[in-house]
Amino acid sequence: MTLLAVERMKLFSTRSPWWCLFLALALPIGFTGLIAGYSDGISLRTTQFGYQFGLMVTLVLAALAITTEYRFGTIRATFQAVPNRTAVLLAKTAVVAVVALIIGELAAFGSWGISSALQPSSDLAITTADEWRQIAGVGPVFAFSAILAVGVGMLLRQTAGAVTVLLLWSLLVENLIALVPEIGPDAQRWMPFVMADHFLSGGGPMSLDMPLGPWGALAYFGAVTVGVWVVGLVVTHRRDA
């Protein structure tokens, strides 16, 4: 049995990932459905307005994938069975990232689909490369975010701490950084989740001031998430399980 198969079974062996999976799809699609149902018109970009709800739940799911093992001590048995910690953590991260990618795509196209059904008079056709990026790009953002969450989970090891850091950073800290005198607005443009949002919106109010284009923003976001994961891997190798 391969490590990928083992990690897949471990991920879905408890109820919490299933609940996270359900909420990560239901929240953005349901929220978009409410907007579409009570609006006179809706744009393609607006169909993805609720993606952050799904993103937050996906961060929780990814953090649980690693911190739950530390909580119940199963990570020790895993490392004893497979002494190559890098291979184990790569397999776990790959499974979580693929699940997050699928969640992101289902949430994005589900939100677009329900908007199209409720607003048949709105022009929601996906025809240009930018429009495809706004919809299909949600999946890669979710996948990189999952890698980030696993990295933070490896560093902190506790579910409460990892989830708190991830949610506070993405929802609060990156917005508050703009309030820092002089350097705040410039620093905010380089925040990872601001970059991720720029990749998806690619024409929002901050786009003219952003230092990178949409695809450069995704590359930057990916580099940050992988960097945090690598730091978590190094720390995991240096301390006891």
UniProtKB/TrEMBL annotation:
The lineage of its organism: Bacteria, Bacillati, Actinomycetota, Actinomycetes, Pseudonocardiales. The keyword Transmembrane helix applies. Keywords: Membrane, Transmembrane, Transmembrane helix. This is ABC transporter permease. The chain crosses the membrane at residues 18-37, 49-68, 89-114, 134-156, 163-181, 215-235.
